[in-house]
Amino acid sequence: MAGEDLLRTALERLADPVSGKDIVSAGRVSGIVLRSAQAGLVLAVDGLSPHDAKTMEARVDAALRSVPGVEGARIITTAERGDAPQGPHPTAPAPLPEIRHIVAVGSGKGGVGKSTVAANLAVSLASQGLKVGLLDADIYGPSVPMLMGRQERLTLREKLIQPAEVHGLKAVSMGAMTDPDRAVVWRGPMASSALMQMLTQTQWGPLDVLVVDLPPGTGDIQLTMAQKVPLAGAVIVSTPQDLALIDAKKAVAMFGKVGVPVLGMIENMSTFHCPNCGHESHIFGHGGAEQAAKAMGLPFLGVIPLEMAIREASDAGTPVALRDDPAGNAFRRIAVQVMAALKETRHATDVR
Ligand SMILES: Nc1ncnc2c1ncn2[C@@H]1O[C@H](COP(=O)(O)OP(=O)(O)OP(=O)(O)O)[C@@H](O)[C@H]1O
């Protein structure tokens, strides 16, 4: 029997006090992993009092550790109503004294290249000698493992998540907890509770900047995350298309609503230079994000061209920001702008 099946069998011996079934059949357990003698899973504690949730967590911990070959266990608790026993108060940002700036990368619309920008921004900042972390909070479509070329599962040491050290930075992804072929279907409070635990229970060490790749859109999940994570600021990625820009403006408004400074906008998939004839075309338009930023009184942080090389480098797990070419330079220029915007924000708000 495979290690993860042994874990499941051990968990099936635990009764669920609410449904009377075992906790696996009751649907309380997901994302079971076993790697390097460390077991991990997500435990839903809905309907349990804080005391009963703690008791269940302890029983799950003991059950996992009873399996031969398991040396440690990491349990991430979630609750749909947001009443997980761990984690901060819903409206109080988690204290993260080792992290100087947390920067969220958001977008109003999916598919505009938010994750590509987040990963390349993080790599560019690391290439400037900064200590950088990258947290993939895009719970429904985590893409950082692919973009960074590391698909491994979560590893734990002394109950703390160990980030993958890759391309000069430390990366943690919800994708590391889940089967890459299966989308995680979690409701908002469960997702934000799991995310907060990944944020606060990862051994980041001292960081200058933590880049957070948010899920696309402006729903409750993003709003809650923007409230719970002590963000220094947000950058908004958009294509130049009108439709994407309408949604990008909603994202700007959402951050404004919760008092998170918007550091600026980035236009992705801007000009396309034909690699064969050199002809310049504007497949999704051009300049729209800069105009929108201006209209909203926000800084414009720069443009990223639409390039096959960017897509290929992303698919290969070697971000284009590692290269000394025009696309790599575009990301490095944006990273400089982001750092400058962060300094201004700190000055303006006297450090949030
Ligand atoms: N500038 C670019 N040039 C070429 N391809 C790009 C560029 N930016 C992103 N892509 C490609 O577009 C696709 C979508 O990008 P990405 O996953 O980063 O978007 P996203 O906004 O994070 O999407 P979602 O959040 O909906 O998952 C990927 O295949 C990526 O490689």
Task: Walk me through this protein's architecture.
Strand 1 (29-35) and strand 2 (38-44) form a beta hairpin. The longest helix has 24 residues, at 326-349. This protein has ten helices and 15 strands. It folds into two domains: 3-78, 2-Layer Sandwich (GMP Synthetase, Chain A, domain 3); 99-349, Rossmann fold. It has helices at residues 3-11, 50-65, 114-127, 144-148, 188-200, 220-228, 242-257, 288-296, 308-316, 326-349, and strands at 29-35, 38-44, 72-78, 99-106, 132-136, 155-157, 160-162, 164-166, 169-173, 207-213, 233-238, 262-270, 272-273, 280-281, 300-305. Adenosine-5'-triphosphate binds next to helix 3, strand 12 and helix 9. Binds and transfers iron-sulfur (Fe-S) clusters to target apoproteins. Can hydrolyze ATP. In the C-terminal section; belongs to the Mrp/NBP35 ATP-binding proteins family. GO terms for molecular function: 4 iron, 4 sulfur cluster binding; ATP binding; ATP hydrolysis activity; ATP-dependent FeS chaperone activity; metal ion binding. InterPro entries: FSCA_dom_sf, MIP18-like, Mrp-like_CS, Mrp/NBP35_ATP-bd, NUBPL-like, P-loop_NTPase, YlxH/NBP35.
Task: Describe the structure using short key phrases.
GMP Synthetase, Chain A, domain 3, alpha/beta, binds adenosine-5'-triphosphate, 35% helix, eight-stranded mixed beta sheet, Rossmann fold, three-stranded mixed beta sheet
Give a quick summary of the entry.
With 352 residues, the chain is α/β, with parallel strands linked by helices. The chain has two domains: 3-78, Fe-S cluster assembly (FSCA) (GMP Synthetase, Chain A, domain 3); 99-349, P-loop containing nucleotide triphosphate hydrolases (Rossmann fold). It contains ten helices and 15 strands.
